[in-house]
Amino acid sequence: MNNNKGIIVIISGPSGSGKGTIVKEIIKHDRYALSISVTTRSPRVGEKEGIHYFFKSRQEFEEMIHRGDLIEWAEFCENYYGTPRSYVEKMQSEGKDVILEIEVQGALKVKELNPEAVLIFIVPPSLTELKNRLIGRGTEKEEIIEKRLKRALEELDMINKYDYLVVNDSIHEAANKIHTIVEAEHMKATRNLDLIEKIKKERF
Amino acid sequence: MNNNKGIIVIISGPSGSGKGTIVKEIIKHDRYALSISVTTRSPRVGEKEGIHYFFKSRQEFEEMIHRGDLIEWAEFCENYYGTPRSYVEKMQSEGKDVILEIEVQGALKVKELNPEAVLIFIVPPSLTELKNRLIGRGTEKEEIIEKRLKRALEELDMINKYDYLVVNDSIHEAANKIHTIVEAEHMKATRNLDLIEKIKKERF
């Protein structure tokens, strides 16, 4: 039996890479828990406290920042978004691998503070494919699509800071690849030093 | 499609850990090639050049050392044993993951020269189990068994220099765990920088 403590698994990738759908597929398995973000924005219709988000006031959020309660946080459109440490650690101690779907800057911040976190970058099979997916959504203007592709190219430069690269040929295969990575990570020697001590201390 | 270049996979573990049997199980798969050692000892009955070993004279072996033709080498009982670079690299370029079953000192030497090599340490479920396996063989004296257990304990101190730890509960499962590790390693970002360049250079 290898180490049971849950691993922080961070999934990033350009808009259109399919990461959201892959995450939905992964968390169908019991061994994973999806990290729930804290936000200061108002709940939308149907959004539930503790399921979709933890909703906080600006003052509460800022107190969380100062207490070091957040693994990472950022401000977008005058609202704060962050990842609460307590929820992640609770899931980890229950042996769940915790999935965080966050963007590159936040991901690198988490890795800096938690070097044992695993960073996975999802890429589409090609940029042409990415463009087709963005166009296919039909929700974005040409200008926004070009902006997102430019952003995707910039993000590709950060991949060498990630641990793994998963090509999203199909959702099912990409989810399986992530399971494979997480299984291998549980066998990392550095995650199993306790096991070694246990074997060594055994009387025989 | 992730990177196709074969990976050097080094498998070590104490005598009685079952590593030899696991290696035999792994190399049933086409994707793997077993590294063939060079030795100065005489062929035993049934041993064939280029299948079991590459047989060389002491002079030829020493020339290989001086030319840097060996990834690692050691001398035991007045015979040299080593891993020829050319064979390993040939297999890698054909896309095969190359399995090296070598002891701890040699393994760390290979890792030093080839940081991209993957070091896997096989441990039995417990030291009691290890002792039982050594006794079960029926070929070793009590004294030698004690010596091997002492050696095993010393080797356990080196595990933190290994990349992965695989507990050998059963041969089949242990072999599967090694496949999982190798699959994950192929997705390492550092092994796929070419793929990123390819995606970035694509015209769209």
Describe the structure.
2 copies of one chain form a homodimer. Chain A has 204 residues and is α/β, with parallel strands linked by helices. The first copy, chain A, is 43% helix and 21% strand. The first copy, chain A, is built from 8 helices and 9 strands. The first copy, chain A, has helices at residues 19-26, 58-67, 85-93, 104-113, 127-137, 142-156, 171-186, 193-201; strands at residues 8-12, 32-34, 37-39, 53-55, 70-76, 79-84, 97-101, 118-123, 164-167. In chain A, the strands form 2 sheets. Chain A has a 5-stranded parallel β-sheet, with helices on both faces. Chain A is globular. The two termini of chain A are 20 Å apart. The interface between A and B is large, with 39 and 39 residues. Chains A, B: Its EC number is 2.7.4.8. Chains A, B: ATP binds at residues 13-20. Chains A, B: It comes from Defluviitalea saccharophila.
Could you list some keywords that capture this structure?
4-stranded mixed sheet, 21% strand, alpha/beta, homodimer, 204 residues, globular, 5-stranded parallel sheet, Rossmann fold
Helix fraction of chain A, binned, reads 40-55%
Mean of residue pLDDT of chain A? Answer: 88
Radius of gyration of chain A: 19 Å
User: Could you tell me the number of beta strands of chain A?
Assistant: 9
Element layout with pairings:
The structure is a homodimer of 204-residue chains.
Chain A: E1 8-12, H1 19-26, E2 32-34, E3 37-39, E4 53-55, H2 58-67, E5 70-76, E6 79-84, H3 85-93, E7 97-101, H4 104-113, E8 118-123, H5 127-137, H6 142-156, E9 164-167, H7 171-186, H8 193-201
Parallel strand pairs in A: 1-7, 1-8, 2-7, 3-4, 8-9
Antiparallel strand pairs in A: 3-6, 5-6
Helix pairs in contact in A: 1-7, 5-6
Main location (chains A, B): cytoplasm
Subcellular location (chains A, B): Cytoplasm
Keywords (chains A, B): ATP-binding, Cytoplasm, Kinase, Nucleotide-binding, Transferase
